[in-house]
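Supplementary Text 2. Reproducibility record for the structural model of the 175-residue chain.

All settings were left at their defaults, and a single model was retained for analysis rather than an ensemble. We include the record here because the model underlies the residue-level annotations in Supplementary Table 4.
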Amino acid sequence: MTDTAAPLAEPPHTLSDPRELLDAYLDYYRAVVLRKLDGLSETESRHSRLPSGWSPVELLAHLTWVERRWFRWGFAAEPLTNPWGDRGPDDRWHVPASDTLASLTARFEETCARSRELVAGVPGDRRAAVGGRFTTEAEAPSLNWILFHVLQEYARHAGQLDVVRELADGQIGEV
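Retained model, structure tokens:
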């Protein structure tokens, strides 16, 4: 998990290249999500404090699947047996009882590393490959669009985790 002693810092204000900003902010929010989960007990990480019913581990598993869907299956068109594997039979996020916060965190970090590999050095205007998530060139978005879409998903979920963490133990801001 993230080192809670050192504060997280946004990417430097000197960055001006849009692609560098997208990559840097995506990594920043990946770290924010892990920071929000760091220090939660296994019990608390599986407890929902919201009417919608999702738990912090379910959110982490969801973001792992978001990475897979958008970068592996979406951008690179790698085959995925079950790209919607975070959905249970009731169409809600689902995490098997055998998964722990630690195992989910490790899987998340591995998945994010794979995502970084897939997009490293690729121009932002390159379109997603056809054959995975996208079946025609017309529906395949650019890498910049995918990066921005995933970034906004992280920002939204990090904000939700702010609320959940405050309700869980009173921690606010960068935990």
